Amino acid sequence: MDWDNVSAEDVIEALREVEWSTPPRSFGEFFSRFAFPRSFSKWKSRLKCNLYYYRTNYFILVIFVLGIALVTRPLAIVGTALTALSIAFLNDSFAASFNEKFIRTIRHFSPHLAAKMRPPHMPVIRGRSAARKTVYICGKPRWVFVVTFLTASIVMWFSSCGLLWVLYALLTSLAVTIVHASMRTPNLKARLNTFREEFRAVWRNYSEL
Length: 209
Prior knowledge:
The protein is mainly alpha-helical. It is built from ten helices and four strands; from the N terminus they run αααααααββββααα. A two-stranded antiparallel ribbon has the order 1-2. It has a two-stranded antiparallel ribbon with strand order 3-4.
């Protein structure tokens, strides 16, 4: 895949729609073969490729750094966990999977309540949903939970007097992620995996027609 022709918006859109249920790459693979990029264009291509291929590893890395930085502030840790959950909800696959598992759990205790948590009926036009991009969680639009959890996170950070410390830890984790993604050389396995995921995405879109 030619990552030079992939824009940052395309990477963000792909991260929003791709499956995040796959396990992270192994520790040995994640921390092997580092080298400086030979040019600015090579650096951009490597950064986009690694951010997409090692997405789960980077997500865990950010949470790990935040957890270490906030180990003495339990309330801030809870706020960080809510922020991580809010970010995860922005991914379509995670939000849909979380919604199904949560409703399935509620059904064991209250089938009537679980039925109310189902998303509203979507009109179908020519075999496709008219609101295909709309994602619901517990019967509510996804953005309701994202905004609610982010607001609760900010309140917890202010209550623990750790907002500046959280921002410092977040910037540190993002800097570590960018440095790793810039130095980690893309291997053949990453390229082959990218082609395989592209094929699955195209096939999934074709099957929805």
